[in-house]
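Page 37, continued from 36.
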């Protein structure tokens, strides 16, 4: 039996994933968490074969959680799931130690295939990710400017470009407005932009929102 733990801050999403996995006789959801703090407690009580980890979480993001888990002991087989397109996070996640990446908008049947592959010690990538990796290897010098952004900086860019105010972003990411302002300043500096309007245009042109 493949034991799976879910980590997503949306109960509805967890329910949908759990229902999908319950259709398989060889997969069992043994724990759920909505944050890093809860996830640590769940994993302490219930080891798993596969961790389904959301990229965009309040407080510590999925990528930050990956790093923390790697520092704490035996590696956890983390299959990242996200609402964001593959070209924004897939390679970042794989480089950070994830063993696979899935888009939440994908076919539910693909989730079953991915969980089984990961549980067997294999990495799981979609054809889209395979193409991204191939392009990345073929032309590393052509990397976009936003590839230099940290996880939080990229999230800040996405949310500002979506029309959200700093106070809203701070609340969603469970950060202080001052911290979000620092991330915004770093984004402007790294991308060579002057204001929110230019950030929005950049995000749209590069398919970030």
């Amino acid at each position: 039996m493949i034991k799976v733990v879910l980590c997503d801050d949306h109960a509805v999403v967890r329910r949908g994933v759990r229902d999908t996995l319950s259709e398989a006789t060889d997969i069992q959801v043994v724990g759920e968490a909505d944050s890093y703090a809860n996830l640590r407690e769940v994993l302490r009580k219930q080891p798993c074969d596969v961790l389904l980890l959301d990229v965009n979480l309040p407080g510590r993001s999925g990528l930050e959680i990956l790093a923390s888990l790697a520092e704490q002991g035996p590696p956890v087989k983390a299959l990242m799931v996200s609402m964001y397109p593959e070209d924004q996070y897939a390679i970042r996640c794989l480089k950070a130690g994830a063993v696979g990446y899935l888009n939440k908008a994908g076919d539910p049947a693909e989730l079953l295939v991915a969980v089984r592959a990961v549980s067997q010690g294999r990495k799981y990538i979609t054809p889209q990710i395979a193409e991204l990796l191939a392009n990345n290897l073929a032309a590393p010098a052509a990397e976009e400017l936003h590839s230099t952004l940290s996880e939080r900086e990229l999230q800040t860019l996405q949310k500002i470009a979506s029309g959200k105010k700093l106070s809203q972003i701070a609340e969603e990411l469970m950060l202080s407005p001052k911290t979000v302002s620092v991330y915004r300043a770093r984004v402007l500096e790294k991308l060579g932009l002057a204001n929110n309007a230019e950030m929005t245009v950049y995000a749209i042109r590069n398919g970030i929102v």
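The mean pLDDT is 85. Flag for discussion at group meeting. The chain is about 55% helix and 15% strand.
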